[in-house]
Amino acid sequence: MIDMLEFxxxxxxxxxxxxxLSLLVTGASLFLGIPLGLLLALxxxxxxxxxxxPSLSVVEIGRGASILVLLQFVYFxxxxxxxxFSSFASVTIAFTWCTAAYTSEIIRAGLESVPQxxxxxxxxxxxxxxxILRIVILPQGLPVSVPALLGFSILMLQASSxxxxxxxxxxxxxxxxxxxxxxxxxxxxxLTAILYAAVxxxxxxxxxxxxxxxxxxx
Amino acid sequence: MPxxxxxxxxxxxxxxxxxxxxxxxxxxLCKDFGAHRVLDNIHLTVDPGEVIAIIGPSGxxxxxxxxxxxxxxxxxAGAIRVGDVEIDAFRKITRRELLAFRRPIGMVFQSxxxxxxxxxxxxxxxxxxxxxxxxxxxxxAVSRQLLERVGLGSKADQxxxxxxxxxxxRIAIARALALEPELMLFDExxxxxxxELGLExxxxxxxxxxAGMTMIVVTHEMHFAESVSNRVIIMxxxxxxxxxxSVQVMRSPHSERAKQFLGAVLNR
Lengths: 218, 268
Ligand SMILES: Nc1ncnc2c1ncn2[C@@H]1O[C@H](COP(=O)(O)OP(=O)(O)OP(=O)(O)O)[C@@H](O)[C@H]1O
Ligand SMILES: [Mg+2]
Hints:
The complex is a heterodimer.
Chain A: H1 2-45, H2 49-64, H3 67-77, H4 87-112, H5 116-124, H6 129-159, H7 171-182, H8 185-214
Chain B: H1 3-8, E1 24-33, E2 36-46, E3 51-55, H2 62-69, E4 77-82, E5 85-88, H3 95-102, E6 105-108, H4 120-131, H5 136-149, H6 165-177, E7 183-187, H7 195-210, E8 214-218, H8 222-227, E9 231-236, E10 239-245, H9 246-251, H10 256-266
Parallel strand pairs in B: 3-8, 3-9, 6-7, 7-8
Antiparallel strand pairs in B: 1-2, 1-4, 4-5, 9-10
The complex binds adenosine-5'-triphosphate and magnesium ion (MG).
């Protein structure tokens, strides 16, 4: 037991530098991907085919191709057309794409949950389409999406472990590196799991709290 | 209650230049939903200050007519003029025209449609700020005054969900009035309410009518139709089947179909 704690104490600093990178790459992908998801959701709602078709392809490829394929496509595939990305950039691009694709569906569902009468009330008041969206629809539709978005974010943090395939030194890569030197996989992956859970479990609690808080006035 | 003249000052002046003119003119209006003709060649004119009640069996197209008048539904054929702005079903309507067309029209819905995430005060103020470009202080001052007028001054800082249905509908009326409409459309404003709560709303509407507001009211309230409105229109199957001074239409309609409908609702 003492021995294991000592092992944890020794590996923790390395794991934490990896974890910092995991959180960074996940955060960057969510920060870029969720607003893109909103834009995709909105352009899928318009009647314009010019907006709809490209958006639809982005969403369908993002959801259809597995994230591992996207990642390797960007990292190993793009250089053959002259675009070379660092492993951090590749992971961010692939994860942003995936985030945008999935969250566009989550956000669309949220926006569609706003009753039609709300839009009509805004129209009858003579508000512009942008005002109706900004003042009436988004403030009611986005809160509905927040729990699902947070749930998705937790999944993305866990999925960031896939970045080891492009040699991004995030938490999982670090754990494997330590493991291959010490062969103490059991305590090592226990600690790694604890680290993931230390962020994911509180996040889940926050989701529940937000769900209650945001539904207060309705 | 000295409510009538208090409401006066928020209404457009009845002596302004355009007031002699017919306020609403609907000509040859048709609306199809797919193959289903819901409105069939509707003609209707409304004078400034007139209160019109539209009654008729369920599905006869009353709501659709009202929604066409402020373009929540696009007419399939015909022309509509409200105030100085005219639209024609055969011409493409730009977004700017749409906003200009709706500017003088207020609408009150059966299900209130207040914005649940905004306080009562914000509900009434928001469109004033966005559409009339009033400052927040100005808008809030107008809103408080209007809420006071509909008897809800104390509710300004509540959220709509904390208000009864009757209160919510009066807030919705205040919200529409805040934009100084020249024409108010009401689509069964009391149908979702208990009779008692409906009465609060009908009182506010009666005051508005007395104060000279031009109103088109789709209603099931036969008493309101007979005693408050100047003119009653009976619709059936997408057509106007009877139209005339309220008492005459309600007491001695000409057409068989109208007699049948009135017989059914008045004997309930
Ligand atoms: N968006 C729509 N799509 C298809 N059909 C519609 C639509 N809106 C209304 N209708 C049809 O048009 C007809 C008239 O509907 P409308 O709501 O105008 O009737 P109404 O006179 O207001 O009835 P009620 O008294 O029940 O409110 C109905 O047959 C209805 O089913
Ligand atoms: Mg109706």
